[in-house]
Amino acid sequence: MADAEETYYTEDRWQNWLARVETEEIDPENEDSARLLLNLQDDAAIAVAKIISAFEEGRLEAEEAVEELDRVRSIVLSEPDLSIENDTAREDKAILVDGVQTSLVCVFYAAEEYIAAGPAEEAPIAEYVEAAAAAEADDDMDAALGYLVQAGTRIIAGDDLDMSVVEEIEYGLVSEWVNGLDSLQSAMSDPEVVEEED
To answer: Which Pfam families does the record match to this protein (predicted)?
Structure first.
């Protein structure tokens, strides 16, 4: 497993992304800022996709793959330590990073579920998303996450997530998690590393 840390994700890689968030003017309405945050998210999703591929190709046993997912998750979902003197700027950027982390929660769960149990029952991904939105409306976030984890396993199996389904959903955790699944879909179809520099 020694080479795994080089192959999938490193603490340094995550910190390099955070350093860019620290130094750049971040405005989610600005295209360049939005791209930086999306790249941060996509880069982590690519690491997850590579772990899944290694498992599917027999280069990682199930237990090793789950351990590697846990290691990457512990890096990506740890509370960011942003070195910004201005409290307001630091809090604003921490909230944006938190949004990325929230989106990725479902990605990690879906990958674990896929490795442990394979893809969920075949059904249109939109149905899973709609069920998750209905569960969120009923304040049943465990069920909402469960539906999207199942949707994630279908994405890993090759089903398509049409992001137009999000247009029907009120902004909330479900829309954040679906955003993460969109990154997972991109990563599964094209697991190329996102360059840290422009």
So the answer is: DUF2150
